[in-house]
Amino acid sequence: LFAMEKKVVIAVVCVAVVVGAVAATSVVADAMVVEMHAGLASEGGSKLKMHISYIDNLPSGDEKGLFYALDLGGTNFRVMRVQLGGKDGGLVNQEFTKVSIPPSLMIGTSDALFDYIAAELAKFIAQEGQEFELPPGKQRELGFTFSFPVIQTSIASRTLVRWTKGFSIDDAVNDTVGTLAGGKYSYKDVVAAVILGTGSNAAYVEHAQAIPKWHGDLPKSDEMVINMEWGNFRSSHLPLTEYDHAMDNESLNPGEEIFEKLISGMYLGEIVRRVLQKMAEEAVFFGDIVPPKLKIPFILRTPDLSAMHHDTSSDLILVEKKLKDILEISNASLQTRKVVVELCNIVATRGSRLAAAGILGILKKIGRDTVKDMDAQKTIIAMDGGLFEHYSEYNKCFENTLNELLGEEVSKTISIEHANDGSSVGAALLAASHSLYL
Ligand code: ADP
Q: Which residue range or ranges hold the Hexokinase C-terminal domain (predicted)?
């Protein structure tokens, strides 16, 4: 009996540490605004890099011709071709293929990685069909999106700042605002794009005069796309727990990408694993022995977390299966399984509320968090990434939080659109809007 009571009490304490961390989101949004200002004021002014993308002309919809794109993400890359029909023609044809990156290349040299990518790209180009047509005298142009922190030095050159998301590569170049470009091509009211996948990042359209660190000529459009690298946002207002600190300390990039480590797909499963491990150690949550598999970092992946979270069966049969298949835990009671689901809920809720807070920060920064003209004002956020796409509880919580933070009236002017494969199409569109043949 004592063991049971102790188990419940300590389990409650372990979980409470995380619940306490589902904190005041509006405070985090305000902290994001402060850091956005600081990052725009000077290079190195904030952990939030606020990189100037040098993109001042997002696609207009009038682009025409055949363009390619390559999108290197966390665990895979996509190559794609699009045929653009020009004014009113839209996206006439598109085709893509997704290639997973062999784990050995994730920790090798960038040369080996890029050789592999180039070979896969060549294969894809060789399969170009009749429905794609290259205008005479033109060569194929390629947009390259790269979902890692970079400093852009001009439209065609970038310097990689740091590998994240489990990659560790010594030398390489490059990043992305492709989703924003793709979103803008489809919906003219897009002001920002947010990726929630293995990692997380956001880009938005800023007024050119609101970028004190920019000393060049102001663009005609008076607009400039800012690649926030928001994964690296950090603030004393972020609700970091002992689990977050421990995971960060043991990560490839301690002290970096703190926001990403709270909200993105790479980490949510691992946070849950860490809490479960503590519960097993301190509260015999899974019986007298701590399940050995539970001690393996990253064994619990975010798709497993979402599968358990979405288990609607009354006896939580899927949770039972996941615990058994992944952690070799076969004796978990229904009560225990319910606690596991609640823990998934807490960790996902925290992440998704923080992601929503980040967006509120952007909306505040560009003055779209209030309504000036109810009839005319429309604000669209383009979203992409596997976490956003597949984790529906996360996604629901994210939209609810945003509505809650914005209030009913402002919410009506804001919509979230899924920009499917937006970043790849976006890269092709940017290749088009910056074509050498223009
Ligand atoms: P990447 O970010 O790796 O370029 P994606 O945008 O496709 O690629 O995102 C993949 C990530 O999305 C995975 O690492 C995982 O964290 C998350 N994810 C994929 N499927 C699911 C799922 N069913 N439930 C929750 N998260 C998922």
A: 192-432
Q: Classify residue 134 by its DSSP letter.
A: P
69: closest CA among 57, 61, 78? Answer: 78
Which residue's alpha carbon is nearest to atom 14 within ligand 1?
198
Structure tokens at 396: 């629901």
Residue 264 φ/ψ region, left for φ over 0, alpha for ψ in the -120 to 50 degree band, beta for the rest: beta
Euclidean distance between CA atoms 223 and 207, whole angstroms: 5
Look at strands 379-384 and 190-196 and give their pairing: parallel
Looking at residue 205, what DSSP letter applies? E
| Residue pLDDT, tens place only, 355-406 | 999 999 999 999 999 998 877 899 999 999 999 999 999 999 999 999 999 9
Reported pTM: 0.83
Residue nearest to atom 22 of ligand 1 (CA): 303
End-to-end CA distance of the chain: 78
Neighbours of 326 (CB within 10 A): 19
CA dihedral of 16, 22, 28, 32, whole degrees rounded to 10: 110
State how far the Cα of 85 lies from the Cα of 91, in Å rounded to an integer. Answer: 6
* pLDDT score of 279 more than 70: yes
What is the crossing angle of helices 317-327 and 334-365, to 10°? 90
Q: CA–CA separation, 366 vs 348, rounded Å?
A: 28
Which of 196, 305, 349, 387, when mutated, tests ligand 1's pocket best, judged by the most ligand atoms within 8 Å of its CB?
387
What is the pLDDT confidence band of residue 421, given thresholds at 50, 70 and 90? Answer: low
User: How deeply is 328 buried, as exposed, middle or buried, from its count of CB atoms within 10 A (0-12, 13-18, 19+)?
Assistant: exposed
Cβ of 420 closer than 6 Å to ligand 1, yes or no, is no
Residue with tokens 């008076």: 222
* 3 state SS of 359: helix
ipTM: 0.98
Q: 141, 134, 195, 218: which is closest to 430 by C-alpha?
A: 141
H/E run at residue 298: none
Ligand 1 proximity of 291 Cβ (cutoff 6 Å)? no
Cα–Cα distance measured from residue 34 to residue 316, given in angstroms and rounded to the nearest whole number: 44
Which carries the bigger pLDDT value, residue 147 or residue 269?
A: 269
DSSP H or E run through 141: strand 141-146
